[in-house]
Every structure is written in C-alpha cells, then in structure tokens.
Amino acid sequence: MISKRSKEIKKNVESDKLYTFAEAVDIIKKCPTLKFDETIDMSIKLGVDTRKADQQVRGTVTLPHGTGKTISIVVIAQGDKVQEAIDAGADHVGNKEIIEKIKGGWTGFDVIIATPDMMREIGKLGKILGPRGLMPTPKAGTVTMDVAKAVKEVKLGKIEYKFDKHGVINLAVGKLSFDAENIVDNIKTVLKAIWRAKPAAVKGKYIQSLFISSTMGPGIKIEEKEIQLT
C-alpha cells in the first residue's frame, strides 16, 4: 500500500525526466516534510576501474555553507598539541586513554585527527576504524601537526570524498532547511572538486550519473549538461 506521503512525492517527480540542480532541490523542498531536518545527499557514479591504483578518486572539499551537521571531532595527540586541539574546539582530546577507549568499542565521533607520531598506535585500531571510514590519513588532512587548523576546517564544513567498490561517491551536502541556493552551491562545489580529481588514466565518460535526494525523499537524476563541466 502506497502511503499518502509517497503519493504526494510522486506528483512532483517524473521518473523518466532529468532535472537541473535548481529543479531537483526545489522538488525535494516541496515534498511533504518530516519531524526532523532531513539531510541532502548526492550520489555520483564514476566511470573508473576501482581496482586500478591509477584511477583512485579521493580528496577533500570544504562546503561553502557547511554540512548543517554537528560534527564530533576526536584529536589524538600529545604534548602542546593537546591544548592546541582543545583551544580549536575539538570535542575529545587525548592520546593513550582515547586509544584504549576506542579499543573498548567507543565510536561516538565523526572524525579523528591525529599527529604523525601517534599513527603507530592508531594503526592498531584499523579493524575498528577502517570499516567505519574513520581512520585518519594525510590525504584527508587528518594526519597533521597543525591540529588546530585541521579542527577548524572540519568545523567549517570540510568533508572527504572517495568512491566505494562500485565506483560511487555518496556525500551529505547540507540540510533541507538550507536555502535552495546554498544547497546548489554546495553541490556544485563538490562536483567541481571531483572533476579536478579526475585521474589521467580514466578514459571515456568520467561522471556517468548524479542523483540528488533527501533522507526520506525521492532520488532525482540530474541532466547531463549540469554534470559535464568539461
């Protein structure tokens, strides 16, 4: 049985039609709302061979209007870096005691930032952090001596992108309560970053499809001319 909400959504979306970013966001905003502020997500299918090292796509991008999500940041460091992290606004700061807490099963955070000298110990947490995408890496800017800068960047909306085993990048790019223009701006910022990260080894169509959706809303396919920036 189709719910009343689903019927209302179907009225706004034509399944075989492609939309501009502005049209897609407008449709999502017109869908019946829920009792929470839904997340806006984008899903990008890349034409890459995920098995080849020279076709990896991974990096970071700062959303100009943030994610709308309260990010819980852990900093694992020692010495004067501990106070630097606290002053920058990190939610949990420490070293061995934090590592032991994670070993015990604690994963109540969104990002780990660590100094290089702590990575040998953090590496032992691979089985816990790896599957959750929480392992800090230099490429993501989460292994650094400048912990204050890293914390501030994450607070401002810096996110990491990488594809899954199917070559799909899934990212949260804002909240339903954001102004439509700000959501589109965030989306385009991510898209430009992914185009800049295109591996030279990729042949053929790099970005094959892009969908925009909300947590409980429809997936809306974006038209080709919006996606192809080159």
Tell me about this structure:
The chain is 33% helix and 20% strand. The chain has 9 helices and 9 strands. The chain has helices spanning 4-12, 21-30, 80-88, 96-103, 119-122, 126-129, 147-156, 180-196, 224-227, and strands at residues 39-46, 58-62, 73-76, 92-94, 111-114, 158-162, 168-175, 207-214, 220-221. The radius of gyration is 19 Å and the shape is globular. The mean pLDDT is 90.
Q: Tell me roughly what share of residues is in helical segments.
A: 25-40%
What's the CATH class of the largest domain, please? Alpha Beta
Strand composition percent = 15-25%
Examine the coordinates and then state which fold CATH places here, giving the name of the CATH topology of the largest domain: Ribulose 1,5 Bisphosphate Carboxylase/Oxygenase
- Name the overall outline: globular
Rg value = 19 Å
Q: How many discrete domains?
A: 2
Q: For the terminal residues, how far apart are their CA atoms?
A: 44 Å
Instruction: Report the average pLDDT across residues.
Output: 90
The run of helices and strands is HHEEEHEHEHHHEEHEEH
Which structural class is indicated by helix and strand composition? alpha/beta
